[in-house]
Amino acid sequence: MSTPPPAKRTKATVNLLDTTGTTIEVRVGALSTVLHVHQKLICNKSTFFTNLVTAGSKIVVLPDTEVDIFRTYLHWLYTGNVDNLSTEMGSSLELAKTYVLGEKMIDPDFQDAVMTKLILSSNYECPCVDAVGTIYLGTPKGSPARLLMVDFYVHRAHGGWNKLDELPRLVSAEFAGDLIAALVTKRPFPPGPWPWVPHVNSYRVKPAGIKSESSG
């Protein structure tokens, strides 16, 4: 009995990273730290860089971007992941800055990867007020990241939260408006009678020394 011929091996198709061609010089941060990235690679992901290269730019200057934040973006471009980003307590500001860089780069895939990290970080705490401010300063109205910040505070903040005194530092009137609207829409009515019914004097202007009904 003859032995059947061995089955043909099919070669798996793998999209290998293309690191050929021209590189772009990027000067990052206040000290103009010089980094290089392959033009084809970054223009395939970032509309921001595509527009600059199309306009003839050979050097890109990002003075307001932190070097480590931009290095995270380069890591994403070359590896396809943001595993270097922490989701532990205290990481929300770094994650917010990284998301805002994605907004600047106009790279929605990168933003969504960072968004996943932001959501994982909520296992520990609400984003710090500086993280909320960073998101609101660096994203447009209707941004999914703005919605996430509001939902974090609607569903996680409470009266016993030891960071309530930080809320006045939220300088963004837009966040305050979004948060109030979300609280009115999503939070349930408090139980019990309306306080202005049994304690009407609490809302009156009265002479000093006259106790309100709520004070006993």
From TrEMBL:
One matching Pfam family: BTB
BTB domain ranges (all copies): 22-86
Species of the source: Lophiostoma macrostomum CBS 122681
Protein name as catalogued: BTB domain-containing protein
InterPro entries assigned: BTB/POZ_dom, SKP1/BTB/POZ_sf
